[in-house]
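Final report, Chapter 2: Outcomes

The project's central promise was a pipeline that accepts a single protein chain and returns its three-dimensional structure in a standardized token representation, suitable for archiving and comparison. That pipeline is now operational. To close this chapter, we reproduce one record exactly as it appears in the project archive, with the input sequence first and the structure output second.
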Amino acid sequence: MQPRWVSAAGRTAIAKVVCQQGSKVQQVCASVQERKVMSFFDKHVFICCNQRATGEDCCNNHGSSELLGYMKDRIKALGLAGDGKIRINKAGCLGRCDDGPVMVVYPQETWYTFIDQQDIDEIVDEHMVAGRIVERLKI
């Protein structure tokens, strides 16, 4: 049994190696690959809303909490929220303060920076709806 802390990409890599080692482990391989295909959400977005002590720069000082609310409302208005669709979540520090405010979109593992509603609109329209990475905002 593999540790729970192995990432999805790591589980897939392990499954590929295991599958190449022989037929006794074919069920394990199929199970791991099936879990990757059956993700609960199509896209899961984490937006850093970390608030540091007064005087320290952080994503929340640049409006990330307000933009999180805006993005949630846009996704709901488009009918894209819910099981099997898109989930927008508030996150603590994502460790990329110098690039902030930041978000990460899974399962694509795409990182974005954003500063206003127009950036959020572009990420929603291009990445969430059309499936295209927004290179201009990617970090």
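Archive annotation: Residues 1-6 have pLDDT under 50 and may be disordered.
This record, like all others produced under the grant, will remain available to the consortium after the project formally closes.
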